[in-house]
Amino acid sequence: MARTPLMAGNWKMNLNHLEAIAQVQKLAFGLSDKDFDAVEVAVLPPFTDLRSVQTLVDGDKLKIKYGAQDVSAHDSGAYTGEISGAMLAKLNCTYAVIGHSERRQYHGEDDATCNAKVKAAYRYGLTPILCVGEGLDVRKAGGQVAHTLAQLDGALADIPAEQAASIVIAYEPVWAIGTGEVATPEDAQEVCGAIRARLAELYDAELADGVRIQYGGSVKSGNVAAIMAQPDVDGALVGGAALDAEEFIKIVRFRD
Ligand code: PEP
């Protein structure tokens, strides 16, 4: 199956709502219909930017998709500081990142939390971008595949095939995030291929064939083409390089 690559920019805690408008405008000016025919482009701004991004995208009928960097596992109520799936759906978000390593590391999110958040995302029609990937110690011990697949199994527990068919998995080795140290294309393929094989075991081969698996970890215009050449890599989750609109556009144009 031909999978449309998904290039998604995770802005993390960068760019206020005015800067977000400027950034989306730069992307809108720089990208053409030809780009959007070949690649799906998404931005993942902080929550406080989403309304501004929505207004811009709706007003100018932009083809850029957007989503949130997290979603609450809860539907509503006394959960101070949390943002619900219903709120994100109301803003027409397409995506919700779930289980980013920074959420796992700094906010104690585990696989059960990710599973609850994946369920919450689907309750509101959001597509999860589920992040999985090993730390340096696990990689050095050669445990990257087992570790990543265990995260996948945990996050997908009880998720029916009708929902899992639309999920996006981001394989993000923690040691490569924000470090400038990128996985080799072969390293990325090893784990992305194993993720697809596990999806075939959990569901079926057809579903696995349709799921997009991104690589994330220090992706830049200079290394994206080699990673994208791997058969089981269908896009990139881009952090630092997504803050530079020109660089992000070059990443979107990885085939050029
Ligand atoms: C990320 O935030 O998911 C990420 C991959 O960051 P960076 O591209 O900066 O490594």
TrEMBL record:
Its main location: cytoplasm. The keyword Cytoplasm applies. Homodimer. Keywords: Cytoplasm, Gluconeogenesis, Glycolysis, Isomerase. Pathway: Carbohydrate biosynthesis; gluconeogenesis; Carbohydrate degradation; glycolysis; D-glyceraldehyde 3-phosphate from glycerone phosphate: step 1/1. The lineage of its organism: Bacteria, Bacillati, Actinomycetota, Actinomycetes, Kitasatosporales. The active site is at H100, E172. This is Triosephosphate isomerase. Its EC number is 5.3.1.1. Substrate binds at N10, W11, K12, G178, S218, G239, G240. Pfam families: TIM. The gene is tpiA. Belongs to the triosephosphate isomerase family. HAMAP family: TIM_B. It comes from Streptomyces cheonanensis. The keyword Cytoplasm applies. It is found in: Cytoplasm. It catalyses: D-glyceraldehyde 3-phosphate = dihydroxyacetone phosphate. Involved in the gluconeogenesis. Catalyzes stereospecifically the conversion of dihydroxyacetone phosphate (DHAP) to D-glyceraldehyde-3-phosphate (G3P). GO terms for molecular function: isomerase activity.
